[in-house]
Amino acid sequence: MKDIDEDALRVGHPETSAAGLTAVAVALQRGFEQAGPLRTARSLVRINQRGGFDCPGCAWPEPNGHRKAAEFCENGAKAVAEEATVHTVTPEWWDAHPIESLEDKTDYWLSKQGRITEPVVLRPGDDRYRRISWGDAFDLVAEHVNATTPERCVFYTSGRTANETAFMYQLFARSLGTNNLPDCSNMCHESSGSALNPTIGIGKGTVSLEDIHDAQLVFVVGQNPGTNHPRMLSALKECRDRGGKVVAVNPLPEAGLLHFKDPQQLSGYVGEGATISDEFLQIKVGGDLALFQALGHLLLEEERRAPGTVVDRAFVDAQTEGFDAYAAARASIDWDETERATGLSRLEIAAVAKLLAASKATIMCWALGLTQQPHSVDTIREIVNVLLLQGNFGKPGAGACPVRGHSNVQGDRTMGIWEKPQEGFLAALDAEFGIVSPRGHGFDSTEALHAFERDEIDVFVALGGNFAQANSDTEALEAGMRRAGLTVHISTKPNRSHIVHGRTSLILPTLGRTDRDDKHASGRQFLSVEDSMSMVHSTQGRLEPVSEHLLAEPVIVARMAAAVLGGGHPVDWRAMAEDYDVIREHISRVIPGFEDFNGRVRQKNGFQLPNPPRDTRTFATDVGRAQFTVSPLEYLEAPPGHLILQTVRSHDQYNTTFYGQDDRYRGISDGRRVILVHPADLEDLGFADRELVDVVSVFRGEERRADRFRLVGYPTARGCAAAYFPEANALVHRDLVARESNTPGFKALTVRFVPHAG
Ligand SMILES: Nc1nc2c(c(=O)[nH]1)N[C@H]1C(S)=C(S)[C@@H](COP(=O)(O)OP(=O)(O)OC[C@H]3O[C@@H](n4cnc5c(=O)[nH]c(N)nc54)[C@H](O)[C@@H]3O)O[C@H]1N2
Ligand SMILES: Nc1nc2c(c(=O)[nH]1)N[C@H]1C(S)=C(S)[C@@H](COP(=O)(O)OP(=O)(O)OC[C@H]3O[C@@H](n4cnc5c(=O)[nH]c(N)nc54)[C@H](O)[C@@H]3O)O[C@H]1N2
Ligand SMILES: [Mo]
């Protein structure tokens, strides 16, 4: 942490509204600093425009009809500036920075250095990365992979990877003979998939952007859209303008949830901004299962009082199973326990139940506030129950909306990046390519962490991302990664995972979203992505790459696969790398919904993938109907002297990449090692505001410690605290995971504070 002055921390008042003029100014300033005015202007005008590139910021969809001239937000612009930077990390840079000198650098410092320009290698016994040719780099990968067995090789993907690249990458892993395909989704929305697949027969959301506009009621649960999905605020405002209502459920009074100033409208520049939430439930971390059980109970009670007014009986009878058991389980409720679990009063919950009962079209949106706790899958199943009760599937303005993170994380899964692939997918893949894919499950991200610890990984390839920082138990993970034989990072910029290298380590620099990809005999190429609402569309960068040595991701994957698998392999990797239409041809024959992929991806707005619950009210579950489920009540309770800690993103970061040191909406400047705690809890625990403490996490009798955090009095829910990801990841025990999905419990830590000594 040497490059950050911890004592510079400034704390102001949290803001009550998001976006507005400051957002535009901040975005432009960041762009000019990184990329200069011309590249900034060139890149910003192409974001999310037809024929332009997909914003690498988040997975929120673009409007289908009229697109505003500037279909981006402050944080999208910051993400673009981060990539479009003119600063470079050359082989000379690596030469001037022996690995030891990089050990104490933060990801903030590392990414500020710029775009990596050439492949580099760190060999055993050497003290720094050195230039290597692409050909030698791929031969080195082949040498290592072929010296071990496929199950000791792991292929990680971060969700920025485009569809075509992801498809080739999983094809490579399976051709080799492994399903070890962990991805960032394992750490993100896996719990959503685990809950949705068995209950509604699809692991994705069931709404379109138009549905959000048309909804009578939208819940925004466990999500901070003002920072992480800013364009969602425009959709929520549109919904309210049409008479819809919004309920926010969050332990933190996040700026964007309360008010919104639309930077794309003149009126958005001045005043308080539009109200976003009609009701704000300031819930305790982990209390959502209790909340949705209570809401289900109240809906059933209202239905008993006025039969036929709340429950959609026709839908429930025809399209669902398990209603009776669910209704029996929710017939009674322990209000004392519900209030304890949620930190909400019975009256507050009843007020929201009333809105729900009156709504004929409800959408439930959620993000990581629900997915990273032991009982996350139960919580999301409970949300499905409440939606099913009122028939909120397959009608306008209604449905489930897990708001995804990385801009193509959903597409990567559709393309087969999954450690537990389904038989139908593998059979189609094998038939198309004449390979025999392995059938056993591979490692997810948590299992990969365990495998690193047990020294079971010889080769770790990462297509993007920053695995060492993103995952739990930082210390153990880093130690394990350092013992691996070969680590390979396909990256745009340096990050901590490059420093925590295996005995041999390769960094392979790639083109990003904004870069032009035109070194192909068949001309300039484009790629495609799928957004949070199952829309598939093309993306094509325009900027001159910062170095002539960069290769496009599909080319890197193809050349790596060809080197590893050798000449006799049935897959024609070269043809796919030459012309991405060839990849799309294969995809169109393997993955349902991608028929005529090449034709439809060239349509004006791309195309929407089939979604049975939304399109036809059908549910491809085991029983052929949507499933009500019954979960016992569960919530997080901290023993005396402890709080429940959740980890969040600041307004100035993209996961493990930082744009700056501020969290403007929460009033925090120039510091990230902070813990937000309710002032009354600070007092009860005997700590002062701004006190410097060490944080101790407790899990199954084991403790982890992270030093030097400043306590900040903040209006969070009582009994809860919040810290930034990834600074707090060292505190997360690797066995603290969500049941069924195995997603790390990043929002479910039990912690106490000790005054920092010395
Ligand atoms: N600018 C920017 N955009 C991003 C990202 C980024 O880092 N920067 N990351 C991208 C990615 S990969 C993802 S997955 C998404 C993440 O998007 P979010 O899910 O919005 O991300 P977090 O910052 O983790 O915020 C979690 C929210 O849930 C709340 N919360 C925590 N615990 C609970 C709980 O128990 N119950 C309820 N109801 N709420 C709770 C927190 O207070 C916080 O508001 O954003 C994507 N977009
Ligand atoms: N405590 C805590 N931990 C968390 C979370 C949390 O809420 N709390 N959230 C989890 C979530 S939701 C996620 S998604 C993961 C994120 O985990 P990752 O996806 O692994 O991490 P990122 O920080 O998004 O990856 C950033 C790196 O990607 C590379 N990169 C950027 N653009 C490109 C590109 O176009 N191509 C390639 N090849 N590389 C590129 C750059 O080198 C950059 O350093 O973290 C998880 N970890
Ligand atoms: Mo994510």
Automatic annotation (TrEMBL):
It comes from the Bacteria. Residues 643-748 form the Molybdopterin dinucleotide-binding domain. Its cofactor is [4Fe-4S] cluster; Mo-bis(molybdopterin guanine dinucleotide). The keyword Hydrolase does not apply. Residues 115-478 form the Molybdopterin oxidoreductase domain. InterPro entries: Asp_de-COase-like_dom_sf, MopB_CT_YdeP, MoPterin_dinucl-bd_dom, Mopterin_OxRdtase, Mopterin_OxRdtse_a_bac, Prok_molybdopt-oxidoreductase, YdeP_MopB. Signal peptide: none annotated. It holds the Pfam family Molydop_binding. Keywords: 4Fe-4S, Iron, Iron-sulfur, Metal-binding, Molybdenum, Oxidoreductase. The keyword Amino-acid biosynthesis does not apply. PANTHER family: PROTEIN YDEP, RESPIRATORY NITRATE REDUCTASE. Belongs to the prokaryotic molybdopterin-containing oxidoreductase family. NCBIfam families: Fdhalpha-like. This is FdhF/YdeP family oxidoreductase.
